Amino acid sequence: MDNAKEITIWDKLQVDQAATKPKSKDGSTTKKKGSNYKIIGQLGKVFGIPFWTYLIIQVFFFDIDAYLKTALPQNTGFIVDYKFFAFLLITALFALFIKRYYLVYLYIIIYPLTVLFWEFPKLIYKFKSWLVFLGVIDAISSFFYKIKYKIIVTTTTLFGFLLVFVFNSKPVIVFGCIVLALVLIFSIARTIYLSFKTPVFLKFQSGVIGKIIKSNFTRHLILIDDKIKQSKAKKLTREQSNTVLTNLQTGLLFHRIIYFWAYQLEKYRASKISFVLGGISYIWLFIKLVVFLAFINYGIYRINPAEFKLTSGSFIHFINYSLNSLFFNETSQLLAIGNFSTAVRIISGVTWYLLLTVLVFNFIYVAKQSKDDRELSGAINEIKNQGKELEMQIKGEYSVTAEEGIKKLQDFKTGLLSLILLISSKLPKNYWSETNQ
Description:
By secondary structure, the protein is mainly α. It contains 21 helices and two strands.
C-alpha cells in the first residue's frame, strides 16, 4: 500500500471531450437589432455633442441664450425662450420613427462617459500599439493622482479668478491676485518636483496586482473549492470537473497576463513616451502661466489703472500681453509703465526662461534614468514576482507548473486555452522563467 500511486485531482476528472456548439441565432434578427442600435448611437452623437457643448459654454463661459436673442433677426428671438417646444417636437419625431427612442436621450445624457469609456478607447485601439495605450493610462493615472489636492487647488483658482474679475473692492482684488500668485508658484514647484520623480503609473502597479491576486474573489476563481478537494469520491462529477478546469485556466490566464503586462511595461520604460508626457506637463504649465498672469495683470490694472498704458480694456489684450511678457516682448495695445506692473513683467520673463532651463535638465535626467533606473526595474521585477507567486499557488493546488497546466488543458480542449496561447505567443520565449535580478 505504501507504494500505491497517489491519487491527484487529475485522476478524478470526468470531462466530455467534445464541445457542443451553441445554436445559431437568426441572422436577420440580429442584423436588424444591430442597425437599430447603430441609428440610436448616431442620433445620440449628433445631438449629444451640441447639447453638451451648449451646456458647458452656457454654464461656465458665456450666455449663449442672450447672444442668440440679439443675433437673430427681429421678432424671432422668441425661439430661444420657447426652445422647450423644439425639444418636444424632436421627441415626437423620435417616438414616431424610432422604436426605442428613449435610448437616444439616455445616450445624450451619458455622452461624456461614452466618449471617455468607448470612443476614446476605440481611437486608441486603432493605433494597435500597447505603448500608446500605456501612455494614455500613464496620463490618466497622473491626472487622478492625489485628486483631492487637485480639487482643492482648482476650487481655490476659480475663486481667485472670481475675486479679480467680478468684485470692485481693491482689497478683495489684491487678495485674489495674491491667491493666484501662490497657487501658480505652488504649481510650478510641484510640476518640477514630479517631473524628476519615478512615474506614479509604474510604482503603484505592483501593489495593485498583488492585491488583485491575493483577493478572496480572485482566489475563488483560480483555486479548487474546498468541497471538491475534500471529496472522497474516486471520480468527480462532470460539473465538478468542469469547475476545476475552469479555475485552472483562469489562473493560467492571469499568470500570462501578469507577464504580458510586465513585458509591455519594460518596452514602455525603454520608449520615448516619457519624454512626450514630460513635455506635455510643461506645455500645460506654460498655458497656466499665461492664464494666471493675465488675471494677475488684469487685477493690477483694476487696482491702479495708471500701472498700464492701453488702447483697450479688453481682457484678451491682457492675455496677449502676458504671453509676450514671458519672452520679454511688448505689445502696442498694452504697455507696463508702473513700477509694480513692470516688476511682474520682469519676473514673468525670468520665470519662463528658468523653466525652459529646468525642462532641458529634466529631459537629460529622464534619458539617463531610463537607461539605469533601479527603482523602475524593481517595480517591474516585483510584478514578475507576482506572476511567480501565482504559479506557486497553481502548482500547490493542481500539482502542475504553468507549462504543464497548459498541456493538460490542451488535452481537455478548454475554452480559454486559445487566449492563453495567444498571450504566450506575444512574449519572448520562456520570459516567465527568467530569473529577476
